[in-house]
Amino acid sequence: MPLAFLARAVALLPWSSLGRWGALVGAFVGSVLRVRRAQVEAAVERAGVPEAKAVARGMYASLGTALFEFLWMVGRRSSERSNRLSAEPRSTRSDGLPIIRMTERAKEALGANRKEAQASQGIVIATAHTGNWDLVGCAAEDHGIRLAVFTKRLRIGWLDRFWQRERAARGLGLLHGDGALREATLSLRAGVSVAVLIDQAPERRVAVTEAPFLGESAYHDLSPAILAQRSRSTLVLALARRDGDGSHVVDVPLVLEPPPLPSRAWVDHATRSLNAALETFVREHPSQWLWLHRRWKPLPRRVRRQREVAVSPAVC
Questions:
Q1: Residue 93 domain-assigned?
Q2: 290 and 249, same structural domain?
Q3: What are φ and ψ of residue 195, in 5° steps?
Q4: Predicted local confidence at residue 190, as pLDDT
Q5: Same domain? 83 vs 148
Q6: What is the CA radius of gyration of the chain?
Q7: How, if at all, do strands 216-221 and 100-102 pair?
Q8: To bridge 252 with a disulfide, which of 109, 171, 241, 311 should be the other Cys (CB 3.0-4.6 Å)?
Q9: Does residue 261 fall inside a structural domain?
Q10: Cα–Cα distance, 271 to 220 (Å, whole number)
Q11: Are residues 274 and 196 in the same domain?
Q12: Tell me, what's the pLDDT at 307?
């Protein structure tokens, strides 16, 4: 497969060079092809974030770097299989430094490196397209975190097979289709944490709430809070950002516990709190968030046929 060969070639590059290659690809996509460039700058300006053009350039560079990082990870896994590289922790860079670092409160909240016997209940992890979300998810197992994510199939079949296969090979559970909600609940009961993206516009008219986000009213998915409440699981917001040395820092700025009795008021409050904390992060690190999404689009006119329409989380 061409992507597999490309990944092996990228894996030969030093980790420190990936940012430069990513910036070149990002500049081509954002400044030459100008893919959604006007939309990105307009969203940044509407949010009141200064230097919209610079933020946009940084975002495209970050996205390009994320592509190279993912291929580098895939290529290293292939190389380790064939013993062409010495065995190292898979979340370690070629210079021996860690790819993923966690703050102390992230380690505590996410249960990093806890023994499997202690993992009696998983947690619901609300997250977003910040830093390199795919890379961080794939490195969860290296940090002792059993993780499953809601995902969807890409339209391009061969690309989807490559993407899903490589994520699964890193120990990442993939939840999709009509039975995804039931699988998520069972996973939480088995001590597997479940990640749900909260920064995309909902694709349905139910289980949503409206609240301000980055300068404009937006619809927010209630799924993470509903799932946490139904499963009696802790709900956390976990966000990653790329640090100056090229590593990724994961932090948990918010931890929420569901009430003893089900409460729609708590679900609404938790959802608004999650998105307010995400907005704070985006304002502090604007180029680390994916402004490409049509985050503020209206709800769909028709409700799509879904067996689990009450809770059908955003996917990644």
A1: no
A2: yes
A3: -100, 135
A4: 95
A5: no
A6: 19
A7: unpaired
A8: 109
A9: yes
A10: 7
A11: yes
A12: 37
- Please give the sequence-ordered ranges of beta strands (E in DSSP) within 153-307, or none if there are none: 173-175, 193-197, 208-213, 216-221, 235-242, 248-256
User: Looking at the structure, do residues 165 and 71 belong to the same domain, yes or no?
Assistant: no
Instruction: Report the distance separating Cα 196 and Cα 161, nearest Å.
Output: 21
Q: What is the pLDDT of residues 105-163, one digit of tens each?
A: 999 999 876 654 455 799 999 999 999 999 999 999 888 999 999 998 888 999 999 99
- How far is CA 297 from each of CA 8, 45, 219, 253, 286, rounded to the nearest angstrom? 39, 17, 8, 27, 20
The torsion region of residue 215 among left (phi > 0), alpha (psi -120 to 50) and beta comes to left
Looking at the fold, whether 120 and 70 belong to one and the same domain comes out as: no
- Decide: 35 and 29 in contact? Cβ < 8 Å: yes
Residue range of the domain that includes 282: 98-316
Specify the residue for token string 């609940």: 185
Domains of the chain: total: 2
> Cβ atoms within 10 A of the Cβ of 67, count?
18
| pLDDT at residue number 85 | 30
Q: Give the end of a domain, one of 42, 61, 88.
A: 88
d(CA 211, CA 274): 11
